[in-house]
Amino acid sequence: MSEPPVRGAGRAEERAEAAMSEAETAGRAEAGARELLEIRGLQVVFDGFRAIDGVDLTVRQGELRFLIGPNGAGKTTLIDVITGLTRPSAGSVRFAGTELVGRKEHRIVRLGIGRTFQTSVVFEELTVVENLDLAATFRRPLWALLRRRRGVSDTVAEALETVGLTDLAERPAGVLSHGQRQWLEIGMLIAQRPRLLLLDEPVAGMSRQERERTGELLTTIAEDHTVVVVEHDMEFLRRYASQVTVLHEGRVLVEGDVAQVRADPRVQEVYLGRTAEEAA
Ligand SMILES: Nc1ncnc2c1ncn2[C@@H]1O[C@H](COP(=O)(O)OP(=O)(O)OP(=O)(O)O)[C@@H](O)[C@H]1O
Questions:
Q1: Is residue 165 part of a domain?
Q2: Residues near 98 by Cβ (< 8 Å), separated by ≥ 6?
Q3: What is the average pLDDT across 205-216?
Q4: Nearest CA to ligand 1 atom 30
Q5: Residue 184 falls inside a structural domain
C-alpha cells in the first residue's frame, strides 16, 4: 500500500507540524479527557505472519497506559508502527487527529511522539547535560541552533531536575549506572517536549531501588505527558500501573485497570499463568 509521491506533500506535512505545535500548547491546557492516540483496525504482516491482527487502541491525553503481553504478542511492533519504523498492511493510527501511517519517522517525532529503544542511544563521551542539550535541539528551528548558546536552557534544566540527574550534569554519560542511563534517556525524551512518550521496558535490568525510582519518575512525568509503557515486570505493574492493555498473538485480549486485568482468567491463562499465585 505504498502511496504515490505527492508534490508539495512535504510542505503540507510541515504546515501540519506547525499547526500541531500551536495545538500542543493549547492542548496541554485542556482537560485530559481528549483522545490523543487512536489506533483502528491495525494489521502488520511479516512474510505472511500476522504480528498485529486487527488492533483497536485508544489512549487519552494525560493517561499512563501499560502495554503488556507474552513474548511475541506484538508490543514492540505496535510501538514501531506508531513511530513510523514499521508500515502496517492495514489500519489507521491517528495522533491528535493527524494520520501517522505513511509519515516518516523524523516527522512523527516532530509531531510530538518520543520513544525509547531497548538499546541505548546515549553518547558516552558527552556529559549528561550535553546529551540532554543535543536531544533538546531536535525540534528546535535552525535559527535557534545557530544562535550562540549561553548556559543551560530551561528545557534542559527541567529535564535534569525531573530525572534527578542535576548533580551528575557535568559527568560523562559513560560513567552512569544502568539505572541512571535509563533516566538520562527518559530525560532526553522529555527535553524534546513530546506530548506522547512510548517507553519500551524502562525497568529491564534495574535493581529494586532503581525500579522504585523509575516508577515514581513515570508517575511524575505522567502528570503533564501522555505515557505508554511496555513492561514485563508484574510487580512494577501492580505498583505503578493504572490502565492496562493486554496484547496476545497480535490482538487486544483485555483492557482495564490493574485489578480487572489481573483478575481476568484469560490474562492469567496466557500471561500470568506462570505467576498465578502472585496474581491472586
Ligand atoms: N521484522 C520482522 N520480521 C518478521 N517477524 C517479525 C519482525 N518483527 C517482529 N516479528 C515477529 O512478530 C511477532 C511480534 O513481535 P514483537 O517483537 O512485536 O513482540 P513483543 O510483544 O514485543 O515481544 P517481546 O516481549 O518478546 O519483546 C513475533 O512473533 C516476532 O517474531
A1: yes
A2: 16, 20, 111
A3: 92
A4: 72
A5: yes
* Alpha-carbon gap, residue 241 to 264, rounded angstroms: 16
pTM: 0.82
Q: What secondary structure, in 3-state letters, does 187-252 show?
A: HHHHHCCCCEEEEECCCCCCCHHHHHHHHHHHHHHCCCCEEEEECCCHHHHHHHCCEEEEEECCEE
How many angstroms is it from 150 CA to the middle of ligand 1? 45
Q: Which domain holds residue 134?
A: 120-192
Alpha carbon of 132 to ligand 1 centroid (Å) = 30
Share of the chain above pLDDT 70, in %: 79
Mutate to test the pocket of ligand 1, among 77, 116, 274 (most ligand atoms within 8 A of CB): 77
Beta bridge partners of 59: 37
How remote is the CA of residue 254 from the centroid of ligand 1, in Å?
Answer: 20
Q: Let me know if residue 95 belongs to a domain.
A: no
Number of domains in the chain: 1
- For the chain, give the mean pLDDT: 83
Residue 142 is assigned to a structural domain of this protein: yes
Q: Which of 50, 67, 71 has most ligand 1 atoms within 8 Å of its beta carbon, as the pocket-test mutant? A: 71
Nearest CA to ligand 1 atom 28: 72
C-alpha cell of residue 163: 530525572
What whole-number distance in Å separates Cα of residue 116 and Cα of residue 121? 8
In a mutational test of the pocket of ligand 1, which residue from 44, 68, 75, 237 has the highest number of ligand atoms less than 8 Å from its CB? 75
Ligand 1 atom nearest residue 247's Cα: 21
Spatial contact of 214 and 64, defined as CB atoms under 8 Å apart: no
pLDDT tens track for 32-54 = 458 999 999 999 999 999 999 99
pLDDT tens sequence across 167-199: 999 999 999 999 999 999 999 999 988 999 999
